[in-house]
Structures are given as C-alpha cells and as structure tokens.
Amino acid sequence: LIHGGRTPNNELSSSLYMLNVDNRGCNRKVTLKCQEKELVGELPEARYGHTLSVVHSRGKTACVLFGGRSYMPPSERTTENWNCMVDCPPQIYLIDLEFGCCSAHTLPELTDGQSFHLALTREDCVYFLGGHIASTDCRPPRLFRLRVELLLGSPLLSCEILNDGLSITSAIAT
C-alpha cells in the first residue's frame, strides 16, 4: 500500500495505491501491478511524512493512517509563506480496503501533529514511536499504543501513552 507523498512537480498527493505481485507463468518473472483505490467518507488530506499500517482484529483488516505534513491551509497562506509545511491535525484515519470507506478519529492522547515517526503493528495494535513536531521543532521521546477493535458497526479506538519512548525520526525497523 502507498498513500500520498510528494509528486515530481512538488505537489502533494492524497491517492491510495495497492501494489500486487503477479508471478504467473513459467518464466518466474515477477510483475508488480499498481491500482489506485477510490476512497469515500472522511478523506485524509494530501500529505507526506506519515505512516500507513495494517491492523487485524476479529477476522477483519483495516489500514491506519496517522501523522504527516501538508501545505498550510489556503486561508492562512500569504506570498511569504506560500510553500510552508505544517503538521497535519493529530487524527487517526481508518481505511476499509474492501469498500474504500474512510473514517477520521480524534483521541485525547494525541495532542500534537507529528511527522517522520515510526509505526510498528502487531495484530490489533499500532505503536507510534518518536517523530518530529513542526510547530515546536522538537523530537519528543514519545511512544503511543493505538488499539483498534473492528467491531460490527463502528470501530473502537483507544490510545495509551507508554513510557520509555525514543527521540527518533525517519527510522526503518525490520
């Protein structure tokens, strides 16, 4: 899955793409097929520096989008700050890949937007570690655990602030 990012002409994208591996045939050639997924509902704005994670709960699967940066809202732009970037609001977006439905969720534990953090997923939990806050230009040593229960009807999200976070940005975990 790929969501958003910067385009070659320095614009931001809000598209969601699904990559699939097609390795049919006897020549063992692997082909990647990329398909744009249409989304409906409360759509996340175009952004970069965010994370997109996949959670599994009660036999269902959903994507969790969090964080990132975007251009300043048009109403606040002037000639001097036209290309200024700001952190996106600290909302969690749940995306149902089967139907393309998006929903936005605000949690009291997530008070600041953040970018370039690390997200690790285990079953129904996503752990957000580190990151950078543009408004204060800091890299707080934060660690959050977001639990997503995919119930019939509406999902249930809960967030817990854990001790012993790390002050990191742009990390890759394997």
UniProtKB/TrEMBL annotation:
<dbReference type="GO" id="GO:0005634">
    <property type="term" value="C:nucleus"/>
</dbReference>
<dbReference type="InterPro" id="IPR004321">
    <property type="entry name" value="RAG2"/>
</dbReference>
<protein>
    <submittedName>
        <fullName>Recombination activating protein 2</fullName>
    </submittedName>
</protein>
<keyword id="KW-0156">Chromatin regulator</keyword>
<keyword id="KW-0863">Zinc-finger</keyword>
<dbReference type="InterPro" id="IPR011043">
    <property type="entry name" value="Gal_Oxase/kelch_b-propeller"/>
</dbReference>
<dbReference type="InterPro" id="IPR015915">
    <property type="entry name" value="Kelch-typ_b-propeller"/>
</dbReference>
<dbReference type="GO" id="GO:0097519">
    <property type="term" value="C:DNA recombinase complex"/>
</dbReference>
<dbReference type="GO" id="GO:0008270">
    <property type="term" value="F:zinc ion binding"/>
</dbReference>
<dbReference type="GO" id="GO:0006325">
    <property type="term" value="P:chromatin organization"/>
</dbReference>
<dbReference type="GO" id="GO:0043565">
    <property type="term" value="F:sequence-specific DNA binding"/>
</dbReference>
<dbReference type="GO" id="GO:0033151">
    <property type="term" value="P:V(D)J recombination"/>
</dbReference>
<keyword id="KW-0862">Zinc</keyword>
<dbReference type="Pfam" id="PF03089">
    <property type="entry name" value="RAG2"/>
</dbReference>
<keyword id="KW-0479">Metal-binding</keyword>
